[in-house]
Specification:
Layout: H1 2-21, E1 25-26, H2 28-35, H3 39-51, E2 55-58, E3 63-66, H4 68-98, E4 101-108, E5 111-118, E6 134-136, H5 144-148, H6 152-161, H7 175-188, E7 191-194, E8 201-209, E9 215-224, H8 233-250
Antiparallel strand pairs: 1-3, 2-3, 4-5, 4-9, 5-6, 7-8, 8-9
Helix pairs in contact: 1-3, 4-8
C-alpha cells in the first residue's frame, strides 16, 4: 500500500513538473502525450490535483494550468530563500563582532527549521543543531520568537500538537512555564534560554519581521554558558537587536528604534 502511494505521488509530481517543462497551459491530450500515461489515469490524477487547487481548468482555453495552492507554496519558498540571502551577510558580521555562532530559523508548520548557521569558528562546545534541523517552536531562544507573537489560540494548538519533551535535564516541559517564557518574549522583544536544547549552552533570539510586520524568522546567538554571563548579555543583546533590525529592514519592515522591533 505504501509503495503504491509513493508511485501515485511520484506520478502526480511528474504531471505538475510538465507545466514547467512543456508549457504553462496544457490539454489532457498534451499531458498524456508528454507523460506517456493513459487518458483515464491522467484524468484521475488531474481530478485530485484540481480538488486540492494544485491545478485549475481554464474553460475558455480548455486547458489546465497551475493552481493557486502552488503559487502560495512558491511564494512561501521564495520568501524563505529571500530571508536566507538577505540575512547571511548580516549574520557573518554579527558572528565576527560577537565571536558567537549565529543562527537563522524560520517556521514551517508546527516546527522551527534551522535554515542557516554561521559558526564562530572558535571550537569549544558542540551545538546540537545543523542546517535543516527541525526543532519545536517553543523550545529555546532561537525558536520562541517564531511562536510568541502568534494569536493565543494558535499557540494553544501548537502546544497541543507538539507536547514538550526533554532535550536536556534543564528543558522546560511545564506548559505554564513555557507560556511564561513566551510572554517574556512579547514583552521584552527578545528571548533568552539556557541549556534548553544543549547542555552547557545558552542563547539569545530576536524576531525578524517583514513588510506586513509578521515575524518571518529568528536571528539567534548561541554559545557556551561562559560566553553568556550576566555581565556580557547587554552587549550581546545590543548587537543582536541591531542585526535583527537590519534583517527586518531587508525584508521590507519599517523598523522602529525600540528593542525587539515592537510597534
Amino acid at each position: 500500500m505504501a509503495q503504491k502511494k509513493t508511485i501515485t505521488l511520484g506520478k502526480s509530481l511528474d504531471l505538475l513538473e510538465l507545466f514547467g517543462k512543456v508549457g504553462t497551459s496544457l490539454t489532457v491530450k498534451e499531458i498524456c502525450q508528454h507523460s506517456c500515461l493513459p487518458e483515464s489515469t491522467v484524468y484521475r490524477y488531474i481530478k485530485t490535483l484540481s480538488q486540492r487547487n494544485y491545478v485549475e481548468y481554464d474553460s475558455a482555453a480548455q486547458k489546465y494550468r497551475l493552481g493557486m495552492n502552488l503559487i502560495k507554496l512558491g511564494y512561501i519558498a521564495m520568501k524563505q530563500i529571500e530571508i536566507h540571502r538577505s540575512c547571511y551577510p548580516i549574520m557573518e558580521n554579527l558572528a565576527r563582532k560577537t565571536g558567537e555562532t549565529v543562527t537563522l530559523t524560520v517556521r514551517k508548520g508546527n516546527s522551527a527549521i534551522v535554515v542557516e548557521v554561521v559558526d564562530s569558528g572558535r571550537g569549544g562546545i558542540k551545538l546540537a543543531m545543523n542546517r535543516g534541523d527541525s526543532l519545536p517552536l517553543h523550545l529555546c531562544a532561537i525558536t520562541r520568537p517564531l511562536v510568541a507573537f502568534l494569536p493565543e489560540e494558535e499557540i494553544d494548538s501548537i502546544l497541543h500538537r507538539n507536547p514538550p519533551k526533554l532535550f536536556t535535564p534543564h528543558t522546560f516541559t511545564d506548559l505554564v512555564k513555557i507560556r511564561g517564557e513566551l510572554q517574556k518574549v512579547t514583552h521584552q522583544g527578545y528571548s533568552y534560554s539556557s541549556q534548553q536544547l544543549t547542555s552547557g549552552a545558552a542563547g539569545l533570539g530576536a524576531p525578524i519581521r517583514d513588510f506586513s510586520e509578521k515575524v518571518v524568522g529568528t536571528l539567534g546567538l548561541v554559545g557556551p554558558l561562559s560566553s553568556f554571563e550576566k555581565s556580557r548579555i547587554p552587549s550581546l543583546l545590543k548587537s543582536l537587536l541591531e542585526a535583527s533590525r537590519e534583517c527586518s529592514v531587508k525584508m521590507g519592515f519599517s523598523s522602529p528604534k525600540a528593542s525587539g522591533l515592537r510597534k
